Please model this.
Amino acid sequence: MKVYYSLSDFQPLTNAVVTTGTFDGVHIGHRKILSQLNDLARKHKGESVLLTFFPHPRMVLQPDLELKLLNSQKEKIELLKSTGLNHLIIHPFSLDFSRTSSLDFVRSILVNQIGAKKLVIGYDHHFGRNREGSFEHLKEYGPVYGFNVEEIAAQDVEEVTVSSTKIREAISSGTIEVANQYLQYKFPLFGQVVSGERIGHTLGYPTANIQVEDSYKIIPANGVYAVRVEFPHNNDAFKWGICNIGMRPTFGGKFQTIEVHLLDFDGNLYGQNLNLRFYKRLREEMKFDGLEALKLQLQKDEQEARTYFSAL
Model:
């Protein structure tokens, strides 16, 4: 897959099969669109192209919402590579770009700059200024500008329409297993190990404090999770772990922390980058009456996590 960080870097193709959208999460619904895109490209001896944007349009148009995303840009690129896509264009999204009319978007960008001969779009997809463009518009423009368009029906999982918004809601509420079902992979969180207060060491449960790399990345709800801890510098290396996200109410914490205890591990991780993959929420965050009560609960958490991992 070739990656371009602006439309100006892309040379028009003679037979481009194109889709467009934010594709945050690259979830099961997105994968259906990309599968159809790649199938059409192969069938018609063309090349598949995804035009997406960064920052996310809502981060530019509705900054007060403080939108958090399912993927960092790095994660998104890696996920898209696995789909068999030929070309990925990540175009900078700005207020000026948002004023592009639906007609100009189709004529100037999709047709002239990319070379679209076929368009594949998701259910209820809108584009252009004020989201004025729709599937009906594309069907009208197609014969004029020489392309065909196909719409993918809503992708359902157990009769629930999948969307990035619903996955964000699942992660924010702590129902990580539902989010993973929609994503079709274990939700990742990447960051660097930084120094903490070393309270875990006094309890016999040393933890690595994670500072998340991307400020716009969504963080799961406060609580305790069973996680897989991966070491990016060694693709084959991982440890199972228990991750606590929260305010540490037992110690009067003033800000949220992300701490992970690696099972069967003894070593110094300071300064290293770790990738956490969230498998299951074990419990909510709790306040305990003293260190002994907390230590007892940590032992229960460990046993539950080990039982869970042994069954995988």
Notes: The chain is about 30% helix and 30% strand. The chain has a mean pLDDT of 91. The chain has two domains: 2-160, 187-310. The radius of gyration is 22 Å.
